[in-house]
Amino acid sequence: RRTSLLNFKSLDVAEQMTLLDSQLFLRIDSAELLIWVQEQSEEKSLNLTKFTEHFNNMSYWTRTLILQQPDAKERERYVMKFIKIMKWLRKMNNFNSYLAILSALDSAPIRRLEWQKNITDGLKEYCSLIDSSSSFRAYRLALGEACPPCIPYIGLVLQDLTFVQIGNPDLLDGKINFAKRWQQFNILDNLRRFKKEQYHIGRNEEIILFFGEFDEYLSEDEMWSLSETIKPRGQTNKGIK
Question: DSSP H helical segments within the chain, as ranges?
């Protein structure tokens, strides 16, 4: 019998996701982040590129698993499973995997399908953490209260560094712009703080093998095609209670 995500405990899955994330996160150094912001060079920021790819792959893998389930009940079971996994990820301060899964559950091919009210209400609550309208205020507060070990969402770190890079010149009147350097230091020092403590998680080969490096996933077009097979375009939601 083929192994299913539902065969594993949500806590165990969250731990193994965190183990893989932390191994990639610990390899990223500050220089890579600054180089990426200045040059967008994948060759010079290999660890950062791997970490970003890992995030994207996990998100696509999550969407694929849900959309490939043969009926509505199974799809709901998978969505509920991922929500349980997210709860554990949040407790472990793994915002990276948490947001990778959340971005999958909130993606258009999945969001457009009909879900039980408890699922849609639950997702609204989770999505409020990454509400970008107030510069990710809720997420920044949660991150500020997090004790290490912690894995932040690297996309927002890069966004903040890019904002500092574009908005401030390197030199002021021919002298080093220390205000800019201080802003960069503060952003990067937060990352260093999160690396102070490490996760103590044993490797579970069965779950790692099941993940398969998260590289088995459908293309965007294939996902849309599946989504529209499940619920044809133009069909309105019946408002499942």
Answer: 10-27, 30-39, 46-67, 72-91, 95-105, 108-111, 117-127, 137-145, 154-167, 178-194, 205-211, 220-230
Residue pointed to by tokens 């904002």: 163
Q: How does pLDDT run across 81-134, given as a tens digit for each residue?
A: 999 999 999 999 999 999 999 999 999 999 999 899 989 888 888 888 877 777
DSSP 133: G
Assigned token pair, 134 = 């107030």
Cα 229 to chain centroid, rounded: 27
- Reported as a single tens digit per residue, the pLDDT across 194-210 is 999 999 999 999 999 99
Name beta bridge partners: 109: none
Q: What is the 8-class DSSP label of residue 235?
A: P
| Mode of pairing for the β-strands spanning 175-176 and 171-172 | antiparallel
For residues 55 and 50, what is the distance between their CA atoms, to the nearest angstrom? 9
Under 8 Å CB-to-CB from 177, ≥6 apart: which residues? 168, 169, 170, 171
Which residue has tokens 């920044």? 140
pLDDT score of 240: 45
- Encoded amino acid at 173, one letter: D
Give, for 3, the enclosing helix (H) or strand (E): none
Q: What is the mean pLDDT of the chain?
A: 91
